[in-house]
Amino acid sequence: MSRSTYRVLSSLALLALAAGGVTACGDNAPSPTASSSATSAASPGSAKAAEAKLHMVDNGGHRLAFYVTQGNGSTIVLDSGGGEYSSQWKDIAPKVHAVTGATVITYDRAGLGKSDVVPGAWKVESAVSDLRAGLKNLGVTKDVTLVSHSQAGEIANYLAQDNPELLSGAVLVDANLPQFFTDEEIPRLVAGTQPEVDAAKKDPEKPENRQLISTAEGFAAAHQAFHKVVWPDSVPATVMVSEKTPFAGSPEDAQRWRDAAASFAQEAPNRTLVTAKGTSHEVPTDRPDLVLKEIEAAFAAHH
Fold it and tell me: What is the dihedral of CA 184, 186, 191, 196, to 10 degrees?
């Protein structure tokens, strides 16, 4: 199985479809504690021109790694796709800092990178709680430009819905959007990924497998709920959709993915749809220049 295909499965629990069929290839969360540790470190997103510092933040008994490149009073948070962690932004983060002057934050979600493993099903409410805890611990309470790839789109949507005052804007990079997860699509995703989930259970301690297994648990119910999430009109958003989408082998699902992005963008006048031409789902890897351009534009529009 290719790394890209595995990323799609682990980040979205999406099916890989080929012509002819499937192919195998919140608020109720624990509050953060007051304690955290900060050590100077070369983060996965650091460069000589922009040194990042590692902060270990505790939230409900598990620790999370946040990497901070200090800048001015504004903050840009880069949130990785499923199965990925802060290293996904290693080439982009220093450039974002250089062109905007903002504080740039990347982090490792629970179970990935330097962050502690949290057993059980992946719950978006817990992921939102982890991000909020990290930002609060770092003193970030407003003026955040949130950049979210793939599965991180779910975190972004819940965060925006529940805490719109925290965000000044967002760039959603081929991200999970509520409009995609319909009653027609969800069963296709569950059925299509079952062989991959079964295979992952044979080696459950491997981080990628653990991510896939935890995402698959309760997937249908979680995404029926996600379908009802509403992005607030007060938060501007740039919606980037890859040309090939995560469903290069299935024209039907690929079109549904594009339609979901277009529908999201059309729901408010302060949303912009951008097609990343020639890209796979891995837009940050395929077109880091375009991602940087859209981050810079979104940031500049409100600063």
Answer: 150
Please provide the DSSP assignment of 79-97 as one string. EPPTT--GGGGTTTHHHHH
Contact present, 273 and 239 (Cβ < 8 Å):
yes
**Taking the alpha carbons of 279, 78, 161, 215 in that order, is the dihedral positive or negative?**
positive
- 238-277 per-residue burial string, b: 16 or more CB within 10 A, e: under 16: bbbbbbbbbbbbbeebbebbbebbeebbeeeeebbbbebe
268 pLDDT exceeds 70? Answer: yes
- Residue at 232: amino acid letter: P
pTM metric for this prediction: 0.85
Amino acid letter, 17: L
Distance in angstroms (rounded) separating the CA atoms of residues 303 and 289: 21
* Residue 108 in this model has a pLDDT that exceeds 50: yes
| pLDDT at 195 > cutoff 80 | yes
Q: What are phi and psi of 179, to 5 degrees?
A: -65, -25
Within 10 angstroms of residue 278's Cβ, the number of other Cβ atoms is 11
Q: Are 200 and 212 in contact (CB under 8 A)?
A: yes
Q: How far is the C-alpha of 197 from the C-alpha of 215, rounded, in Å?
A: 10
Handedness of CA 112, 116, 119, 125 (dihedral sign): negative
Nearest Cα residue to 67 out of 101, 48, 94: 94
Pick from 127, 295, 132: nearest CA to 226: 127
